[in-house]
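User: What would this chain look like folded?
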Amino acid sequence: MHIGVLALQGDFLEHVKMLESLGVYPKLVTSPRDLDSIEGLIFPGGESTTISKLLDSSQVGESLKTRPELPIFGTCAGLILLARSITDGRADQMSFGYLDIEVRRNGFGRQIRSFESDLDLLGISPPPMKAVFIRAPVIEKVGAEVTVMASVQYNFDGVDESVPVVVRQGRYLGSAFHPELTSDARLHEYFLQSVVGPR
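Assistant: Here's the prediction, encoded as structure tokens.
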């Protein structure tokens, strides 16, 4: 199985290590030609506007638009890149619209508001997964075709809300947190086996 990791900016090396722990040796994607031989792609966390600019200048973004069949797993900033709509998006913020969700960047607050939570995930066996949220986006709306695989309880200005944090729509998987920053590879394994694998 040939899996690419977008390596323009962000914590792509952590995803590489996670995939290697599963016996997959990924390909770093920095140019359009790197997309030719892969069966799936990971969008890492990082700075979403910076990644957007680099996707444009490297022409990887345009090339990706010609491959809508390619399974993609986006984490944190990668989730923003997959979203249909970004409520606080800038003019230079790229999004592919592959996941029918509306997101708000840094919706859980600045880095000082980072937190961890134990999550039960649909389709993934217990125990709960420890999720690390760092300047994470908030999923504010999900479309009818989107499956919510996990949610977290969070207090927004004194009001507790249940917020989706892992979503899937067909060949696209998105996570608001950073699964690559723990030793738990189950979400990556799910992507390989259940999203990429059945094709």
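The chain is about 20% helix and 35% strand. If you want, I can go into more detail on any region.
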